[in-house]
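FW: tagging you since you asked about this chain on Friday. Here's the raw sequence from the shared folder, copied in full. Didn't touch anything.
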Amino acid sequence: MKDKTFRALYHIPPSFVEHPLQKRVLQAVGRTQESMVEVIFRVGGFGTYDVSTITFFERGTVLRHIERSDRAITEPFEFEYYEGEEAKQMRVAFHLLGTNWWPPVFEELEGVRTLDGTQWSLSVYTNGTLIHEHHGSNAYPSEWEHVTRLFGIA
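HL: got it, structure written out here
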């Protein structure tokens, strides 16, 4: 895994704002020129992966996009658009995760070796610039259940 990125290892398409379908969605809701924070959460193992992207816009709205490797060609993406109180709750939930305080790498306990386990990463971008990134292989932050719930990945 050290010589291949998670994205290359699982053939994950480019991040949310670089993907043409999502760019059209952002244009449709009038958000392409707005300042944003984009958080990309990738999780997978043994040939399957999920990628969930939450985009926080400066005007207070939130867009969540989920791509699952096990979906049929006819239904590859899920979009949810939040405004008002729902958007505020999403912002608060993400802030409470405290990702800016997480270590860059989560490692298994010493002496524990899991084969074919779960790899994950969480990347935070502001206007396309990487701010911080975290990843793990069979090791997780204590907030893991909250992370998977917020990003819509069970």
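FW: Confidence is low (pLDDT under 50) at residues 1-21.
HL: agreed, and The beta strands are 36-45, 48-57, 62-68, 77-82, 105-106, 119-126, 129-137.
FW: great, closing this out.
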